[in-house]
Amino acid sequence: MIRNLKRKLYFLFASSIMFVFTIVFFLLASENIETMQNAELNFVNRQATNLTLLFENSTNYVENLEICEQKYDYIFRLFTEHDELLYESANIKDAAETIDLFLEKLKFIESVGTNEASYSTQSGTHTFRSVNGRPYYGILCSIYTNEGYLNLAIVKEKSGITAFSSTVMHYFLIWLIVLIAVLFVSVLIIRQAMKPTEKAMQSQKNFIADVSHELKTPLAVLLSATDVIETSPGCTTDIKNHAALIETEISRMARLIQDLLLLSSIDAGNWIFHKSKINADTLLINLYEKFEIICHKKSIDLQIRMPEECFPPLFSDEDRLNQIISIFLDNAISYSPEQSSILLEASIKKNNLSISIIDHGIGISEEDKKHIFDRFYRCDKSRTKKGHYGLGLSVANELVSLLDGKIYLSDTPGGGCTFTIAIPYGKSE
């Protein structure tokens, strides 16, 4: 119970911290990437302005444009106001087509043609996508020179997220380090906070185990005493009836103590299984014959259904498996009315021995299903079923878990409930 609570707390802390830091990480990273993209856009604008100023006073166009191509991966097209081509980049595939796309888009936004003013102008910075879907920046500069106007189309591929991978990794490393540190601190805090609870739970377990051990001897003495009373000379029928009642209650208490000791042993982690090859057919038939007598006394029809072929040997703990099935059969009998039926069904499914106990009793409500395996939980709130303390299903659940099996609960068509136990076949050691 404590281990499960710890796991839940660790998971809750880890999930919450991871969620918060992931949001913070993405916000910081997005803000930083946006800042870097804005800086890139401003840089392209400045480069366009610098080239415009340079070409107003220089005719060495080709050399200057080739230097920019190599240094900054730009694409250029320089042409006169009469569309005479002076220079065009060929440093990337489909460079001419990409510039054409930009100029075509620009025609719908800004006027592209002869500049009647006596000074250089520059279009806004536009974003567009090439044929292959890549984003680009585009600027058109109209440069006023002594020989007339020149048009310079400047295109540069927009940097994607990969261009800022170093920044992203920087934030990711910070996020990871902080997350690990906070998780480590959280684990320490949870452990310290859980210590009083663990100590109290351990004291409770020790108390239950000690009391259970101490009660075993006096109960055995009382049981022997009732046998002596019943067999003593001159014992009247009335005395025998009272002795039988005492014997029944002592047996009930002995079962309770046995369950408490078993759960205490499991909680302490010192439970040892004795696994061996089991003949599942023999085990199930013996259980059927044992409980068929009990069912007959209550006017309940117990049936068994197994495949015609024998089950392969099952490697498990025979005593514990016997105990598990007995708990479910006893539970089904206790909550089934007279003239009803119970089916013990077995089959092989997905390398598991699947055993179903199907009854047509009072059934289990949806609310009770959530707590059916909790210790001391009973669906019968009136406590009229004196033979049960609410530990049987808890014991069965613990034992099935230790055998690496699973328990499934479903409603039986027409009323009642069906418990299915899936025990893996396993391998002989």
Q: Can you give the helix content as a percent range?
A: 40-55%
Low-confidence stretches: none
Distance between the termini: 30 Å
Largest sheet report: 6 strands, antiparallel
Order of helices and strands: HHEEHEEEEHHEHEEHEEHHEE
Give the strand content: 15-25%
Count of helical segments?
Answer: 9
SSE-based structural type: alpha+beta
Coarse morphology: elongated
Mean pLDDT: 80
Number of strands: 13
> What integer value in Å does the Rg equal?
42 Å
Give the topology.
Layout: H1 2-56, H2 61-72, E1 74-80, E2 85-88, H3 95-107, E3 121-122, E4 126-129, E5 135-145, E6 148-157, H4 165-231, H5 237-268, E7 276-278, H6 280-297, E8 301-305, E9 314-316, H7 318-334, E10 341-349, E11 352-359, H8 366-369, H9 392-402, E12 406-411, E13 417-424
Parallel strand pairs: 8-10
Antiparallel strand pairs: 1-2, 1-6, 3-5, 4-5, 5-6, 7-9, 10-11, 11-13, 12-13
Helix pairs in contact: 1-4, 4-5, 5-9, 6-7, 7-9
